[in-house]
From TrEMBL:
This is UDP-N-acetylglucosamine 1-carboxyvinyltransferase. Phosphoenolpyruvate binds at K22, N23. Cell wall formation. Adds enolpyruvyl to UDP-N-acetylglucosamine. InterPro entries: Enolpyruvate_Tfrase_dom (IPR001986), Enolpyruvate_Tfrase_sf (IPR036968), MurA_subfamily (IPR050068), RNA3'P_cycl/enolpyr_Trfase_a/b (IPR013792), UDP_GlcNAc_COvinyl_MurA (IPR005750). GO terms for cellular component: cytoplasm. It is an enzyme of class 2 (transferase). Pathway: Cell wall biogenesis; peptidoglycan biosynthesis. Residues 7-407 form the Enolpyruvate transferase domain. The active site is at C118 (proton donor).
Amino acid sequence: MDKLRITGGTRLSGEARISGAKNAALPILCAALLTREPMTFTNVPRLQDIRTLLALIEQMGVSVARDEADGTVTLDAGALDNPVAPYERVKTMRASILVLGPLVARCGEARVSLPGGCAIGARPVDQHIKGLQAMGAQISVEHGYIHAASPRLKGARLFTDMVTVTGTENLMMAACLAEGETVIENAAREPEVVDLANCLVAMGARISGAGTDVIRIQGVDKLHGATHRIMPDRIETGTYLCAAAAAGGDIRLTGTSSAYLDVVIDKLLDAGCEIDTERDAIRLRAPGRLSAVSIRTAPYPAFPTDMQAQFMAINCVAEGTAIIRETIFENRFMHAVELQRLGADIRIDGNTAVVTGVERLEGATVMATDLRASAGLVIAALVAEGETTIERIYHLDRGYEQLEHKLAALGARVERLR
Ligand SMILES: CC(=O)N[C@H]1[C@@H](OP(=O)(O)OP(=O)(O)OC[C@H]2O[C@@H](n3ccc(=O)[nH]c3=O)[C@H](O)[C@@H]2O)O[C@H](CO)[C@@H](O)[C@@H]1O
Ligand SMILES: C=C(OP(=O)(O)O)C(=O)O
């Protein structure tokens, strides 16, 4: 299993290019299942999660062509004949559930393994199922598989119990081919939902309200092929901003935008960073020492849970005490124990962490427990004195394209041990 060895204490400087967003690319690639015509996607990140999803849909009978060098993927679901997502593939990636809506809408049936619980929480998919049932799908869950069938879904008024990102995406995709109008209330407003809606509209879908909490979809008989460019990854962007904030330095991130990062940038300004935004680049200059910043995670446009671990890391070395509240996932503090191994002062009480900044962290061996927890450990390792070895970095490979190369280009001392 690969590990990452980081020698801390180097300031970061220079430029790094941000990749396409994992959490936009995953649903958008699934949208290709909704049409018989070829779809072309650009700016698709080279990530393990993307490879997993492409392998999953390829075994359904979809033809997959990929140019890893330029990030283009062409999918042709004209011959899709196996609307099944087997456990072996779903278990490594929860976002596989995003094939459910498109498959039942286009094929009239689907058999999709229930994604298991994962490190950050139980993450059930009851809202996805409830929404499809309200649209007329017959659904049973047997032997760990969701069986869904419906000759044609019917538009309906849907209301999810909580804001769910992939739930909104699944139901929005299904509704595109349903008969009549679907209204999704309490919809997720995440920018990735909007990017998906833009792709669906380019395919001929009739959607309004994406980006608000009420999305209306007028079903159409069929969708056609289109080309879509995946939006930049706002979480990858935020992660590099945090890395430079913590390690010190002056970096410029290109191929990205501050448009969806208001709350993250606001917190970094509060922490004492200087930030300049351009149309498609962001520059950050770190202060001598960061000030502690408290955060509370909540659905967009509030502070993203996918940036919580990175902010815990920067608070570990900031001046003062920060309160971190995690309101989305019930078990998303596993990085705290690992950060303590580096010398951090963190107290956990339920969904609240109290982080008091220390003057210095010290390198140690730590274990990555999930994707963003790993990112938090990388940030702490960049600051820690001496060497830190991060084990189980397959979590990082799920969501960060060429992490060690991008960090090395910014001057970090980092190497992958195979
Ligand atoms: C591929 C992708 O886009 N992943 C993101 C997506 O995950 P994902 O879409 O899985 O997360 P959700 O927005 O669905 O989860 C929000 C909360 O709702 C709960 N819930 C959700 C659905 C459901 O049917 N029942 C239920 O109880 C979840 O357990 C969680 O507590 O949004 C999360 C919250 O911003 C991010 O951390 C993930 O990076
Ligand atoms: C939790 C995440 O991803 P996923 O929903 O794919 O597990 C994430 O991107 O931080």
